[in-house]
Amino acid sequence: MKKYTLIFLFLLSLSAARGQDSSSVKFGLGFTLVDFRDMANTFFSYHYFSPNFSIPIVIKNMVRIEPSIGYFNRNIEFKSQENENDFYKVSDSNTHLGLGLFFLKQYAPLQVYWGSYFSYIISTEKQNDKDDRDTEEGDGYSIGPAFGMEYLFNKHFSLGGEIRAQYLKLVREEDSTRETADKDKITYHSFVTRALITLRFYF
Length: 203
Hints:
Layout: H1 2-18, E1 25-35, H2 36-39, E2 47-49, E3 52-54, E4 57-59, E5 63-79, E6 87-107, E7 110-129, E8 133-152, E9 157-176, E10 185-202
Antiparallel strand pairs: 1-3, 1-4, 1-10, 2-5, 3-5, 4-5, 5-6, 6-7, 7-8, 8-9, 9-10
């Protein structure tokens, strides 16, 4: 249901943009260069991959609607120094389908924006060691306020920073090779903060 709601909101945003005078609407492409939530994991020797792309739609330089898609993959491996066959691995992957709604304030060449960001998340976590394998699959969502600033180099390029504070909920079903394991649904709740640096190009 959450997935279809997000698709509906995305189509509604495109429809609203098309309904405006074409001279007052501009479209663009965005790419997240750094996600400091993910970057913090490097201190724990994690291996991660986290590209994020967006389509900013600016209406009358006052409102920005920004659908996005992102992918996060993190791999953790622990090995015993005494026995090389004794190991523990965790692989965590999440696909995000997001939608942001922001109000803009111009202080040329700076642009300040604030609003909210919602994302539907498809999540998988795999854990395995020399004896067992556990897999959790499911979905969920995150929602919360966001604030950012971007520097406009010219009418086409900008570089910006953004802070998000989000409530996260995931519901995943566990599937395990352990004989005593049952298929249980596990619900995760958390509050996360993220800081992003994003490059945007406007047509």
